[in-house]
Design a protein that fits this description.
Length: 271
């Protein structure tokens, strides 16, 4: 898919809208586009979030509903892997939610998926930055759940930097929540360990501390960052707190399973 021709003298809003449309079409047509940062448009992080919000408007107009938010690029392992060295956020919709043990047909909407294991927080109270602390996040959280996020990129060959992934809804694809729902106050979330298996072979292991020291700190960052854009974390939201392990490419025939210590498991397969 070729990139949208844009003039550097066009109004910023026009540039943002054109790139939102391009990325949404890439999502629907499953055809990646060249990196946005190489368009000589001097895109800023604020531009990128405006582009992401524009994509969300297309999704909502198409009948999707927001069910949560996600934090991306929180762990050092993922940052080093992608060459992106600060976190970002994206939106989760109902059509991204895959049931535990379900099968994801890559041809039905993904381009270049990769699996990552996370701790999901499900909120009982809203949070709005600035000034949200880790203690506030704990107080606002109803339960936690084991989670796979299947990240995907509409950017060719995962050739991303921070502006590319922010604009592309933080490279979100779909997500899977395990059946378990556990009180977060019963655990030290930073010390929780996840073990990931691919095709029944051990793949990787990580701890909750991989995401900014704790999932609670990561979600506090999310609430405070979203507050700058007038976006809240709402009661009932599913919040994906970031990958605890390196990303792993998913191909047809693969099956992934994770075990989150003291919490539960989740699994997903691909066709």
């Amino acid at each position: 898919m070729s990139s949208t021709p844009l003039s550097t003298t066009a109004p910023r809003r026009a540039i943002q809208q054109a790139l939102s449309k391009e990325l949404y079409q890439a999502l629907r047509e499953q055809r990646p586009v060249p990196p946005l940062r190489d368009r000589s448009l001097d895109l800023t992080i604020d531009d990128a979030y405006a582009i992401s919000l524009g994509i969300l408007e297309y999704r909502l107009a198409n009948g999707e509903k927001v069910v949560g938010k996600k934090i991306g690029v929180t762990s050092k392992a993922v940052q080093d892997m992608l060459g992106v060295h600060q976190p970002d956020f994206g939106f989760l919709t109902d059509r991204m939610w895959i049931e535990d043990g379900g099968c994801v047909r890559i041809a039905d909407g993904l381009i270049q998926p990769r699996a990552e294991a996370e701790i999901a927080l499900i909120l009982k109270h809203p949070l709005q930055g600035p000034g949200v602390t880790a203690a506030d996040v704990l107080a606002a959280t109803d339960t936690i759940a084991p989670c796979f996020e299947i990240v995907d990129s509409r950017i060719e060959k995962w050739d991303i930097r921070i502006v590319d992934t922010i604009a592309d809804n933080a490279s979100c694809g779909v997500f899977v929540l395990g059946a378990a729902r556990v009180d977060p106050r019963a655990h030290d979330l930073a010390a929780l360990t996840v073990r990931v298996f691919k095709n029944d072979v051990f793949l990787s292991e990580g701890q909750g501390s991989a995401v900014q020291g704790s999932p609670l700190a990561a979600v506090a960052w999310l609430a405070n960052t979203l507050g700058q854009y007038g976006v809240t974390l709402d009661a009932g939201d599913v919040i994906l707190s970031g990958s605890l392990v390196p990303l792993e490419t998913a191909r047809p025939g693969d099956r992934f399973r994770l075990e989150l210590s003291g919490v539960g498991s989740a699994s997903v397969s691909f066709a």
